[in-house]
TrEMBL record:
Transmembrane segments: 72-91
Stated name of the protein: Anti-sigma-W factor RsiW
Family statement drawn from the similarity comment of this UniProt entry: Belongs to the zinc-associated anti-sigma factor (ZAS) superfamily. Anti-sigma-W factor family.
Signal peptide: none
Coiled coil: none
Domain called Putative zinc-finger: residue spans: 12-36
Keyword field: Membrane, Transmembrane, Transmembrane helix
Organism field: Hydrogenispora ethanolica
InterPro entries found in the cross-reference section: Anti_sigma_zinc_sf, Znf_put
């Protein structure tokens, strides 16, 4: 199995991965000493920084979990854009198929005469 990149390992250490992604990394860590060492080094660095700069850690705790929430917002925005574009495309097609102006009046008159003659 290929090793996860450093960003994925850092996200794993920060608890930012989804459950299934975290399970994949955990399974990989069982077999890869190099990646286990990287994760351990990241934990050690994080603990050192928390001890050296506790006020920064407190500020970061208040702003977490921005990344997972941001992913959700981006997904919702993408779905909305796709829906709006689809609706506008169909709306334009629908409006083109309905005649307006003098042609519409002539068609309406023809249909009125046709249905009156049929009944």
């Amino acid at each position: 199995m290929r090793c996860p990149n450093d960003l994925k390992l850092q996200s794993f250490g920060d608890g930012e991965l989804s459950n299934w992604q975290a399970r994949i990394v955990e399974r990989h860590l069982q077999h890869c000493q190099d990646c286990r060492q990287k994760v351990a080094d990241l934990h050690q660095l994080r603990n050192f920084l928390r001890g050296a700069y506790p006020e920064v850690d407190l500020a970061l705790a208040k702003t977490q979990p921005a990344l997972p929430f941001l992913r959700y917002k981006l997904a919702v925005a993408a779905v909305i854009v796709v829906v709006v574009m689809t609706v506008s495309t169909y709306w334009q097609q629908f409006n083109r198929s309905i005649p307006s102006g003098p042609d519409a009046e002539m068609i309406e008159e023809y249909l009125t005469i046709y249905y009156e003659a049929g009944s």
